[in-house]
Amino acid sequence: MGGNTGALSVHEAVSLAARHVDGIPTLVVAGEVSGFRSPNARSGHCYFQLKDEESSLDAIVWRGIYQGCGFKLKDGLVIQITGNFNVYKPSGKLSFVAKKIEVAGEGLLRQQVAELARKLQAEGLMDESRKRRPPRFCERVAVVTSLSGSVIDDVKRTLARRNPLVELQVVGCKVQGEGAPETIVRALSVAAQAAPDAILLVRGGGSYEDLMTFNDEALARAVAASPVPVITGIGHEPDTSICDMVADRRCSTPTAAAESVAPAIDELETRCSERANRLARSISQMSSMYGERISSLAVRSEQAMLSGLAKQRNYVDALASRRCLTGPRAIVEDRMAQLDQTEDRMHAAVPRVLARQGREVGYAGQRLEALGGRLLVPYESSVERAASALDALSPLKVLARGYAIARDGEGHVIGSADRVNVGDEIEVLLGTGSIGATVSNVRA
Hints:
The chain is elongated. By secondary structure, the protein is an alpha/beta fold. It has a 5-stranded mixed beta barrel. Among the domains are: 10-104, CATH 2.40.50.140; 111-130 and 137-266, Response regulator (Rossmann fold, 3-Layer(aba) Sandwich), CATH 3.40.50.2300; 399-438, no CATH class. The protein has helices spanning 10-22, 63-67, 106-122, 151-162, 180-193, 217-225, 242-246, 254-261, 265-320, 323-326, 329-393, 395-400, and strands at residues 27-34, 46-51, 56-61, 78-88, 93-103, 140-145, 167-172, 198-203, 230-234, 249-251, 405-407, 425-429, 434-438. α7 links the parallel β9 and β10.
């Protein structure tokens, strides 16, 4: 090293510095994030600078520390880092390595407000479809604000200047400090009971901490739940609170909020005159248009009526020319002539019909007689055979050969001698006639 044996190598110098840096105790450092892009794509660690108005230092947040912090780093965010200095020996770079990070001061408040805004937005309290449109011309307005500040005077002057016809109700409350959100919630309830057209929730400008009253969750829910449309005018143009987000209308200042519910009286007069002129022109145009339409309809009605009357006249003339109307006796005469013709046709037709039917009956009788003889031939032989069989089986045939049939007094055939007793009266049937007898003896 240039022949100077007392010189340190780079490694020795860096190691010496590292030993001294390691001796520095754990520190808590607050500053603003700068140069942050996103966690390292490969390792997930975060690298950025922590700066104030005079100095900056490199900071490292390991992946596990960043994932457990509960918020996202971004440029401009003021944070508080608990950690130690570290010297990276290969490059001799000094960094502050975090053991814990948290949002500091106003940054913490902004983080809390952002989280509440996301929560209420997820519930739908900020949806435009939920918000009501206050009347364009309010007749009664309630103002909820502090009675000790200049805001209420500004609102009164604005309303008196623009439209003195607006009726004003003032409900006082605290707009800053401990207990302020609760008093505003009560004031909103009192204002709504008077049923105004709209409620102005206003206060003058201030620091972010001063306006934190209007980032209260309970107050924001009360604004969203108000039965009367709520118009906010809180702080100045850049200031936006949770109450602004859930209100039915947000104005940049209290004066702008007052102007939104009270159009200037001269503007109203001008608009009324313009609308009166437009109305007169519209009525004139409509009258002219409807007059032309009525004239057209009258002409068309007359033409339609004349056409209809002509058709009815032709129809009546056609009816009047009919024979039944020109000569009523013609109907009877026509009917009588038709009856006479019918009678003549009947007299001429009856003999022809009877003659034709007589011939048809004669032809049918002849055919039936011829057909009947042929139909009976097969049945005659069958009847003769049946008659011969019946004659052969007839009891009368047997009796004719000298046999007899005995019957008791009741007419039952006596087939056995044990069915009669001596002295019984019986009847004996012969081939011709019968004999009454009395049983003198029985031989079984």
